[in-house]
Design brief:
It is built from 7 helices and 3 strands. The chain is mainly alpha-helical and 180 residues long. It has 2 domains: 11-106, Arc Repressor Mutant, subunit A (Orthogonal Bundle); 115-169. Strands 1-3-2 form a 3-stranded antiparallel β-sheet. Strand 2 and strand 3 form a beta hairpin. Helix 3 crosses helix 4. The longest helix is centred in the last third of the chain and has 27 residues, at 143-169.
Amino acid sequence: MSDTDTTTLSQDIAFDILSNARRRFVLRELQQAPDEVELVELAERLAAEENGVTREALTAQQRKRTYVSLYQTHVPKLVEAGVATYDQDTGEIAATERVGELSEYFRDEPESSPWPLVYGLVAGVGFVAYLGIFLLDADPLEPTHVGGGVILGLLIVSLLHYAYATRADGELELVPVERE
């Protein structure tokens, strides 16, 4: 699979990639990095986190074990899935746009939306006002004024709803790093 492939990742591939804490760590670090990250640096950060020490306190064996694991196993799997690129000449790894597909698996289910209630409330108020005109024989108000007010109210609520939904869709979920 190439990173120019426009199909979405299958669930099997996504779950396979996300099944390992080291790959999740790499994905999270790549999501947060503005540019490419050197694999050596990434391996040091991961080794320090896994061993509960600072990067300076890592032993050569801890660094090497983590680097080899990333280089031989985890990075090739990420590149093969098209969620990362790796340049062997510079030793730099970078995320592709496909990382967002993986982070979707961690998006919280949205709470029940109040929007149907808001739309219903605007329509209900308009209906009651419309009935009130006929029952009370209110001269200053015309049914067309009430209808126009309801349409305006629904338009305003629709624009607010669109702005809310657009903002919520644009928020990027990060891949969590919890240990197995």
